[in-house]
Amino acid sequence: xxxxxxxxxxxxxxxxxxxxxxxxxxxxxxxxxxxxxxxxxxxxxxxxxxxxxxxxxxxxxxxxxxxxxxxxxxxxxxxxxxxxxxxxxxxxxxxxxxxxxxxxxxxxxxxxxxxxxxxxxxxxxxxxxxxxxxxxxxxxxxxxxxxxxxxxxxxxxxxxxxxxxxxxxxxxx
Length: 173
Known about the structure:
Elements: E1 11-13, E2 17-22, E3 27-29, E4 40-45, E5 48-54, E6 57-59, E7 71-73, E8 85-87, E9 96-104, E10 107-118, E11 125-128, E12 133-136
Parallel strand pairs: 1-10, 2-10
Antiparallel strand pairs: 3-8, 4-5, 4-9, 5-6, 7-8, 9-10, 11-12
């Protein structure tokens, strides 16, 4: 059973925050509330429990295994109204919409954070043969956009342009 503080029926709903994170790095999903007093904090991705805090400590009993060992709050800052979530070692599957629910004597609030995940191009390989130029890269997200041009410009239809995009089991291009 998860406790919910109901000293007031006042509820605040704020606009989504958009956060973009890089795969493999740590990322902060911002959330704040009006202190002081006891607080209940629940983070969800859709309906999936990501992190909970109540009775003045982290509660991991209902946390989804996908997030196990990868989440924390800034506990020393909670009394000052900081309910932000630190998501460690971001994965492709972490992208999506998160809800931060807080409940205090001053009311309940829900803050939504849309997490985008990307993997920037780390390296690019160019191969040139007699009549072919090939450009390739790996482990990127979103899919890279490729365009070719010549200087001086070639006649319309003089060049054959082909792009092949593949996705690995991690969702990377």
